[in-house]
Design brief:
Structural class: mainly alpha
Order of helices and strands: HEHHHHHEHHHHHHHHHH
Number of helices: 16
Distance between the termini: 33 Å
Pfam family, one: CDP-OH_P_transf
Catalytic activity: CDP-N,N-dimethylethanolamine + a 1,2-diacyl-sn-glycerol = a 1,2-diacyl-sn-glycero-3-phospho-N,N-dimethylethanolamine + CMP + H(+)
Family: Belongs to the CDP-alcohol phosphatidyltransferase class-I family.
Protein name: diacylglycerol cholinephosphotransferase
Number of domains: 1
Radius of gyration: 23 Å
Membrane topology: Multi-pass membrane protein
Strand content: under 5%
Helix content: 55-70%
Number of strands: 2
């Protein structure tokens, strides 16, 4: 112990998961499937093992994509991947969603429900978020573009909003249309469509696709590509989620007699972190090269995603331990220094100090990736170690059976179906 304070560890006993899911699709279609699916898993399989298995499938999908398209160009650069890769991404994401949905059910079956599962579940979700942005943007034929950057910002913003809302309200709220349910199913469909028609399908104009190019008045509208139209619609979704999350937070603050505007200030850490990353990307084209147009774009996004996972991981830890909301992140200093170095031609009319060549910039980007991985890995290791030691549990091991043949801390086997 040592990373989490003694008082914060005591607060773990007060934690209880609360969730609301308003999705009819989840209630009437997916949840019955998940309730059946969890019964296929033996009681000796730990919930966190299921969660990690789902993330491992996504890692495999990601590795496969980079194997066939290592420079992240998709059809735009003449790289044509086998169709089965997109189908595997579709199946992989469906399995990830299913595994992510049943880990909580398995936790209740085995008596392992608690704050560690909450931390582990959200941590895997945070890493999956960036990986799916990269893969989905490739499937949409966006590749190295500002649309992919916008997708990263929008997706991370949704995740941050959900975590911010849960911290202030004490419950995870999923509306009639939410990212973890309908949003994931849409991405699954995108992968499947790209598997049938290829990523170039998404460059088709929306009016052309709908056969409206000869309809008077309508044909005067811009024939926006399907991928651009999808991204534009997603932007409105982020705006809607922002006001919906704040409405829930405001209601909770009023009920508790607390200020309703102050929570909005805690959205600034995300704005600052995203702003620093974009600042690095928009640097002048020194030596006729730009980070967003290079093969370093994917490792850059991965480093960004790991820093984000660390950021929201600390938010979730603050939630389960009832400690103050984390505001400062030391990785900002490193990323800002890199961004300033890249922008020296604009800021000081001089060449960058480090990023003077593609080789130097590659070294810096991969070093940033390594530091981001190390920081997040250290956080996960220390938090898991503190919680497991304090609560007397193991991360990937289910508690032993008692003398009556039941798992310690779980419901009796006769109640297993009810609990699941």
């Amino acid at each position: 112990m040592g990373f989490i304070s003694a008082d914060a560890l005591q607060n773990l006993h007060k934690y209880a998961y609360k969730g609301v899911d308003k999705s009819p699709l989840s209630k009437y279609v997916l949840n019955p499937f998940w309730t059946w699916f969890v019964t296929l898993w033996p009681l000796w399989v730990a919930p966190n093992t299921i969660t990690l298995s789902g993330l491992s499938i996504v890692f495999l999908n990601f590795a496969t994509l980079l194997w066939y398209d290592p420079t992240y160009l998709a059809d735009k650069g003449g790289v044509v991947m086998p169709n089965w890769v997109y189908f595997s991404c579709s199946i992989g994401l469906f399995l990830y969603q299913s595994f992510d949905a049943i880990d909580g059910k398995q936790a209740r079956r085995t008596g392992m429900a608690g704050p560690l599962g909450e931390m582990f579940d959200h941590g895997c979700d945070a890493m999956n978020t960036t990986l799916e942005v990269i893969m989905a943007s490739q499937a949409l034929n966006l590749g190295r573009s500002w649309w992919t950057v916008a997708s990263q910002i929008a997706t991370l913003a949704n995740f941050y909003l959900t975590t911010w809302e849960e911290y202030h309200t004490g419950e995870l709220y999923l509306g009639v249309f939410s990212g973890p349910v309908e949003g994931i199913l849409i991405i699954i469909a995108i992968y499947a469509i790209s598997g049938v028609y290829g990523p170039s399908f998404w460059d088709t104009g929306m009016l052309t696709f709908l056969r409206l190019t000869n309809v008077p008045l309508i044909n005067q509208l811009p024939d926006l590509p399907l991928n651009d139209a999808f991204m534009t619609t997603a932007a409105f979704g982020v705006a809607y989620n922002l006001q919906a999350s704040y409405r829930n937070v405001r209601r909770a603050m009023l009920a508790a007699g607390k200020p309703t505007v102050q929570p909005l200030l805690l959205l600034l850490p995300f704005v600052v972190s995203a702003g620093i990353q974009v600042f690095w990307l928009v640097h002048p084209h020194y030596n006729d090269s730009a980070l967003i147009n290079s093969a370093l774009f994917v490792p850059f996004l991965c480093a960004w995603g790991l820093q984000f996972a660390h950021q929201v991981g600390r938010m979730i830890l603050a939630h389960v331990t009832s400690t103050p909301f984390p505001v400062w992140d030391w990785m900002w200093v490193w990323s800002l220094a890199c961004a300033i170095d890249a922008n020296l031609p604009l800021l000081a009319d001089r060449a960058p100090i480090i990023q003077t060549s593609e080789a130097n910039r590659a070294m810096l980007v991969y070093l940033t990736l390594a530091i981001s991985f190390g920081a997040y890995g250290r956080f996960c290791t220390l938090v898991i170690n503190d919680i497991t030691n304090f609560m007397g549990i193991a991360c990937f091991t289910v508690r032993k059976k008692d003398k009556d043949g039941n798992w310690q801390g779980s419901v009796p086997h006769s109640e297993e179906k009810k609990a699941s």
